[in-house]
Sequence to fold (384 residues):
Amino acid sequence: MTDLGHGGRDGRDRSGTRVLVAPDKFKGSLTALQVAERVTAGLRRARPGLRVTALPVADGGDGTVAAALAAGFTGRTARVTGPLGEPVTARWALRGDTAVVELAEASGLRLLPPGVLAPLTATSRGTGELLRRALDAGARKIVFGVGGSATTDGGAGVLTALGARLLNGSGAPVGPGGAGLAALASVDLRGLDPRLSTTEIVLACDVSNPLTGPTGAAAVYGPQKGADADGVALLDAALVHWASLLGPALAGAPGAGAAGGVGYAALAALGARMRPGIEVLLDVLGFAAALDGVALVVTGEGSLDRQTLHGKAPAGVAAAARARGIEVAAVCGRLALTPGELERLGIRRAYPLLELEPDPAHSLAGAGALLERVAERIAADFAL
Fold:
């Protein structure tokens, strides 16, 4: 968390007014930190004496580790197995005995080369390797962000990296990815890292899909990862088979289908518990304390739409601020919510960049400068 100063150049004391800037990323354009910096710049240009605190947020997907680093966690890096089996360098974060591990850093869709998708064979193994690194560093609580995966392997890769043995009928390890699970004959968890039994693992997740079926990991998210209709059917059948051997009780749990089934493996084999991603991150980032003395919160993300209503980062930020009686403004690239829906979220007013630049391509490319202009409007509209 960064406090960006107070004491206006005009000599007026505005120390009683403070703004908290807590946005998520603008996907494909700006990181959450960059959004916060641009909004801060616009606010301070409009009101030089304004005290502004930047606290970028995330909901468990891309940007979760970056948000932890901005809040004061120490960054770590590790060379781990990427989704295609090639090594990648992944970041994670540590403060005291609490680690933040982001699946997208090791097994994310964004790690695939342009035009390359591997829906049947992509592995989550590197994410398990990151979890092991956190254990090696002494973590006893791991906040595990499980968004943005390239995989639909049911978390099999995670478990093998942590010591599980997944064997075919000949006693050999099964192949990588969801397709490999079709040949699975036995699951042996006796080699799982014993430190897991004394470590709290909290899944930070913003989806409620079960593992299998028409709303499961393969059916809903498989096409985004490159699976055609036959691939979806193969993956769903493989996940049904996987659950029959690992334990079907939690396959229907909300969030079991997160990250191609990594949610299920964490619940069924690692003793994890699931919480809405933004709630977890706000706790970890110290958001409640950051609200002390704040007159306005500015949040936002690339698109405020129907998904926002179901627990995305701006919804969680607005709910926490509203509970403290603090007004909320939101910045976004695109606005697809009605005034009534914004009001229910606790957002007094939203500021889409498309109002300033109607061309989506230009808006995306110039998002930083547009955010500064929007922030100047916020300063005027809220009489800061």
